[in-house]
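Hi R.,

As promised on Friday, here is the backbone we talked about, encoded as structure tokens. Could you run it through your design pipeline when you get a chance and send me back a sequence?
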């Protein structure tokens, strides 16, 4: 235990230092876990964003494909 001396100074034992180091080590482990959770969260957000931007492009290709099919059908129909 930390104890105050009569002259106003403090005595810190090796057990006190070890207890503080263990406490900070536990905090660092929790922080490292939180950082890995954040990294995983960022990965999930990026994958959702890829779909968000890929979907409009696929819709445009679908519309273009449909328009081409209709145009080809009209051309073939008009030549009969």
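Update: got your reply. Pasting your designed sequence below so it's all in one thread:
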């Amino acid at each position: 235990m930390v104890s105050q001396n009569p002259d106003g100074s403090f005595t810190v034992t090796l057990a006190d230092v070890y207890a503080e180091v263990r406490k900070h080590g536990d905090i660092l482990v929790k922080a490292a876990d939180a950082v890995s959770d954040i990294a995983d969260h960022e990965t999930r957000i990026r994958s959702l964003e890829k779909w968000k931007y890929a979907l409009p492009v696929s819709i445009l290709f679908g519309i273009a494909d449909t328009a081409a099919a209709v145009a080809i059908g009209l051309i073939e129909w008009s030549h009969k």
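One thing I noticed while checking it: The mean pLDDT is 82.

Thanks again,
M.
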